Each structure stands twice: as C-alpha cells, then as structure tokens.
Amino acid sequence: MHWILRLLSHGIALAIGFALGIYMLPILTAPDSPDAAALTASAEGATYTGSFTRDLAGSDFLHWGTGSISLSPQQITHMGALAPGPDYKLYLTPEFVEDEAGFEAIKAASVRIGDVEMFDGLILPISEGINIEDYTTVVIWCEAFGEFITAAKYR
C-alpha cells in the first residue's frame, strides 16, 4: 500500500513539473522584445490601429493579450503584453472573432503573418503579396494547443 502512495505522489509531481516546463520554456527561450523606442518608431505612420483586451469570450487567465496593434502594408507592431505560451502565431482574418470556434471557422480564409516569440511587444514584417486591406482583424493563436489568445479589429 505504501508503494502505491509513493507512485501516486511521484506521478503527480512529474505531471506538475511537465506542465510547468511547457509553460516556462517559451518564457525562458524568448528573444528580447524590441525596446520602447523601436516599437514607437515602428508604429509611427501606421495605416490602421486596434487594441487587444482581456475581456474577449475566448480569453481567460492563461490566454490573453493587452495593448495596441499598429499595421502598415510592411509590418505589424504590438505594444503591450501577451500571456506567455508555446507556438503562438499571428494571423490576419477577414472578420472579427473572439474564441476558438470562431477562428477555426475562418482559419482557411485567414493568412498567417508569422511566429510570435516575444510577449512584451513585437514587430513582424508582412510578406510581399499580403494586402492588409483584404482583412479586418489581427488574431494571436496558439497553434500547438488550438487555443485562442486574443484578437483586435483594426478596420
């Protein structure tokens, strides 16, 4: 009986350690975010702006974003914070969504801009051939777990 309790307690400790590792690894390996001056300069002259908020239907205490998003035909700048996590992607979508089901319904009509590896602001280039006028919303999505993080309507 004693060995069953040990096995159970060690299994629980292993599961907690694994979960913490999945959560902490992106934080530990994230490159440095651009400084405030670089973010401000990148956002100047933006064609569109929007805001991430924590009060979206698909956001919760582990999946959220705050701050402003600025778009020009060449790049997207985020000044704010994102909940850290693995395998985040930034998408442009043709309509505003605020949860997993909404995004999955329009994912095929959306375009992936790039990887989100920083959680305190970022600058992502927009590939040639992508027209921001064809979309209305920026979505941050966790590809690995199919989790909605946040969204901001920019037009």
From TrEMBL:
Residues 50-155 form the DM13 domain. PROSITE patterns: DM13 (PS51549). Keywords: Membrane, Transmembrane, Transmembrane helix. The chain crosses the membrane at residues 7-25. The keyword Transmembrane applies. InterPro entries: DM13_domain. This is Electron transfer DM13. It comes from Phaeobacter inhibens. The lineage of its organism: Bacteria, Pseudomonadati, Pseudomonadota, Alphaproteobacteria, Rhodobacterales.
